[in-house]
Design brief:
single chain; 334 residues; alpha/beta; TIM Barrel; 2 domains; ten-stranded parallel beta sheet; two-stranded antiparallel ribbon; 12 strands; 45% helix; globular
Length: 334
Amino acid sequence: MPDRVALYLQDAHPLADAISYVQYAESRGFEAVWQAESRLVRDAIVPMAAFAATPNSIKIGSGVINNWTRNAAVIAATYLTLDDLAPDRILCGIGAWWDPLASKVGIKRDKPLLAMREVVTVVRALLHRERVTFHGEFVHLTDVELDVVHGRKEPRHVPIYIGATGMQMMKLTGEIADGVVLNYLVSPQYNETALEQLDAGAKVAGRKLDAIDRPQLVVCSVDHDRKKALDGARKLVTQYLGQQPHIMKASGVSQDLLDEIGQVLTWPATEEQIEEAMRLVPDDVVQMITASGTPDEVKRKVREYVAHGATCPILYPLGPDVRLMIDTFANGYN
């Protein structure tokens, strides 16, 4: 069975270029493309629709939308519409968002586990074409169904993946989701604890760990010039060290380095602050939490994530040569 690989796109490229990268990835054997929606910059749904309308077989996922800003019924209607464009090729990735962004736009993320459980439960039922009455703490529906008058009326096969990072959300994912989107900028060893919690959640639902798909975002900076590749990843790593220090600490980054960077970066950080903080980040930290370097080096690093439980690397290309990264993994990571 060939190695599974997928492409991850954020907002670094014009949409027309992104479409061409998806088409190229499909031609080179990639199984899926996942479109980000994290910062307030590029919505995931519009690019997903563009991707769904152009290639022929590649799967299209959201990596990830959040469960706060769209009504659960609207989420279900959106993914039904995407499934009309690309039947049985749509993947619904959903996450709990993050602060301070959420609070800055008026979202108070109370009880994130309960909120996620309610949204996933209702979205799945609606996509299965059930008539739903549900009154929880966050989701309220009374006698609601996806009102398909024209077109396909059958239940839709749209797997739901949770973009989980914290271990409580990881356990919930094992219980209620079809899969997990494992985060990027973590070390491969982070996956060991994550899989323990996924397994614990799966047991609550009477399932086995193998029933849960585990694609993982992996930052991939590849260049035949090793230094250029490492420098290409350093900026993103630096920003993440400042924004998500708790995750970085869990991945083995020293507290001293986190404290140093925290003294330099504010949120949102200025370009000057990022440039200053980048000088503090050594090569070994970049390579610990990314796949960066020559083609052979990045493939070796990706194999580590797979060895630690990832089922499908979702490769996030850094640098201008996206096709080089796609070509590097066209025959898998072995």
